[in-house]
Amino acid sequence: MNVFDQYEVWFVTGAQLLYGGDAVIAVDNHSNQMVEGLNASGQLPVKVVYKGTANSSKEVENVFKAANNDEKCIGVITWMHTFSPAKMWIHGLQQLKKPLLHLHTQFNKEIPWDTMDMDFMNLNQSAHGDREFGHICTRMRIRRKVVVGHWQDKDTQHKIAVWMRVCAAWADSQDMLIIRFGDQMNNVAVTDGDKVEAEQRMGYHVDYCPVSELMSYHKQIKDEEVEALVKVYFDSYEHDNALEDKSTEAYRKIWNSAKAELALRAILEAKGAKGFTTNFDDLGDVDVDQTGNGFDQIPGLASQRLMAEGYGFGAEGDWKSAALYRSVWVMNQGMPMGCSFLEDYTLNFDGANSSILQAHMLEVCPLIADAKPRLEVHFLGIGIRKSQTARLVFTSKQGKGVTATVVDLGNRFRLIVNDVECIQSKPLPKLPVASALWIPMPNFEVGAGAWILAGGTHHSCFSYDLTSEYWEDYAEIAGIEMVHINKDTTIGEFKKELRMNEVYYMLNKALM
Ligand code: MN
């Protein structure tokens, strides 16, 4: 099932009874045609459901309360067909808890110069009706997306589609459980943060789960299930045929990786979790060979494959990245190029093409691979269990994308977004990891400098298919700060923005 099929977006048309019942019937008719047209456009991932005209304060309040209580409804689109005196929206807007998109459009595309009369003008008033509505939203400090354009125009529909994908990710994150197997990596600041505030602000519920509980699932995995999954690996990925030799250590490592994946998936399903973190210092019993109550290697292959399935993942206990990756995956559904959790790995100084290798010791999502990933087993000498370790190795596609992270600044969360361009990478014969190679916009020097000034993580959530517009919509819905590093960024202006935001959010916090 497509993740968007379970959701709908409501469309509410503003009108009033001043012009008589016939006008409302015409408004209703136009609205129906528009919603049918939007749904038939093939541009929108989520179904639009027309909820009728709102002609009074009570009607507005009723429809917004219904939207709040309807689990399928992930957002509301409003449009003022006639002039709709905005005091009638106050009580409803005070109630509305779902994301709001204000569509400034008009039923007719062009002015019907030869036939337009006062009846037409009394009916088709969005030019001023939408400004009246916009005023009350601004006066009430209602966060929303304003989309301006004719409803049949592809660009207009695209802006609605972007917002819909964000609304779906937002709805998904409102009951998002992230399980932490092990704690944060000791002493690391940037991946830590206020989990209580994160739940209030972004919806994430972050729980600890002892690795011993994970091992209780691990013990119940049947050999036949593991055999079947190992076969899937060999069918799905490039590999040396020698890996299929059951007498080798490499085969045993792949077999154990498959068992780890099945155990992780089983516990995530049992708990209804949408993401997880791991910690390479906490993999179960130290004497795993004697007890079987532990992973014999970091479950990196499992993390790679679970990420591709949509589970949020953050390495070293990074629960904010796990949650954000899950949201990226939801927004990215059905798109061609893919998304991944990544880490700034090492730098390549090369003049105007200076770039950053993006990788991780194991956990990069195969959705960004430029070709079929290769299953390999190599020694990994980090963490509690230094061992031969299975992983998928690949380089990423080339192309533009956007990467994002959320950091906790103590008094607020900051979303940091950077446009990047993935360029041709080179083989890494001695470093068998999955990787991408990108230039952060506007260039390495300014892009990396601005990211560091903003306090950004070394972990981020990347997508080729998303753009900063998605993140703008996300930050607007969440009510969190967003800074966007792009082709126009200069360090001087960026520092000013950070200072201004510091004041704005201090005041904003005091007002809330
Ligand atoms: Mn890391």
Distance between the termini: 40 Å
> Residue-averaged pLDDT, rounded?
95
The hetero molecules present are: manganese (II) ion
Q: Strand-residue fraction?
A: 15-25%
- Main pleated-sheet profile: 6 strands, antiparallel, barrel
Helix amount:
25-40%
| Number of alpha- plus pi-helical segments | 16
- Number of DSSP strands? 18
Rg, rounded, reads 26 Å
Shape, please? elongated
Placed side by side, the strands forming the largest sheet appear as 10-11-16-15-14-17
Helix/strand-derived category reads alpha/beta
The residue ranges in which pLDDT falls below 50 over 5 or more consecutive positions are: none
Give a short overview:
The protein is α/β, with parallel strands linked by helices. About 40% of the residues lie in helices and about 20% in strands.
Describe the model.
Helices cover 39% and strands 22% of the residues. Helix 6 (154-173) runs antiparallel to helix 13 (319-331) and helix 6 (154-173) packs across helix 15 (468-478). The two termini are 40 Å apart. The strands form 4 sheets. The protein has a 6-stranded antiparallel barrel. A 5-stranded parallel sheet has the order 2-1-3-4-5, sandwiched between helices. It has helices spanning 21-40, 57-69, 90-95, 118-123, 126-139, 154-173, 195-202, 211-218, 223-236, 249-271, 288-291, 300-309, 319-331, 444-453, 468-478, 491-511, and strands at 8-14, 47-54, 73-80, 100-104, 145-148, 177-181, 205-209, 275-277, 312-314, 339-348, 355-359, 374-380, 387-393, 399-408, 413-422, 435-440, 459-463, 481-485. The chain has 512 residues and is α/β, with parallel strands linked by helices. Manganese (II) ion binds next to loops. Residues 315-316, 343, 360, 459 line the site of manganese (II) ion (MN).
